């Protein structure tokens, strides 16, 4: 679970905080639509970043958005009937202010 305050008040306005996380997934994660499911599942929440298959059979995902929404994306991917995540490595990354979309990288 990603732990971070989700919002702050500034001059009466609520400003949602964002986090950036990098993930490496190992298991049955290639050939099962992992990348396209990540792109589809993030869409309603406006997360940004990218996902890519690696030569060693893992999948790399970098995702930016509200921590609760990143958690929802991970939950959806880990509870998919075709995807099996055996291992996941996570790291914090710096915020990318200019990032505006989510891409499937080849």
How do the strands and helices of this protein lay out in sequence?
Blueprint: E1 7-10, E2 13-16, E3 19-28, H1 34-42, E4 48-53, E5 59-65, H2 67-78, E6 84-92, E7 102-105
Helix pairs in contact: 1-2
Quick summary:
It contains 2 helices and 7 strands; from the N terminus they run E-E-E-H-E-E-H-E-E.
Tags for this model:
106 residues, two-stranded antiparallel sheet, 42% strand, 7 strands
Description:
There is one protein chain. The protein has helices at 34-42, 67-78, and strands spanning 7-10, 13-16, 19-28, 48-53, 59-65, 84-92, 102-105. It is globular, with a radius of gyration of 14 Å. 20% of the residues lie in helices and 42% in strands. Strand 1 (7-10) and strand 2 (13-16) form a beta hairpin. It has 106 residues and is an alpha+beta fold. The relative contact order is 0.30. Strands 6-3-5-4-7 form a 5-stranded mixed β-sheet, with helices on one face. Helix 1 (34-42) packs antiparallel against helix 2. It starts with 6 loop residues before the first strand and ends with a strand. The chain has 2 helices and 7 strands, in the order βββαββαββ.
Number of helices: 2
Helix content percent band: 10-25%
What is the alpha-carbon Rg in Å? 14 Å
Task: Please outline the major beta sheet.
Answer: 5 strands, mixed
Q: How many strands?
A: 7
Mean pLDDT: 89
The computed structural class is alpha+beta
Alpha carbon gap, first and last residue: 28 Å
Label the overall shape: globular
Helices and strands, in order, run as: EEEHEEHEE
Strand proportion, as a percent range, falls in 35-45%
Low-confidence parts: 1-6
Strands of the widest sheet, in order across it, are: 6-3-5-4-7
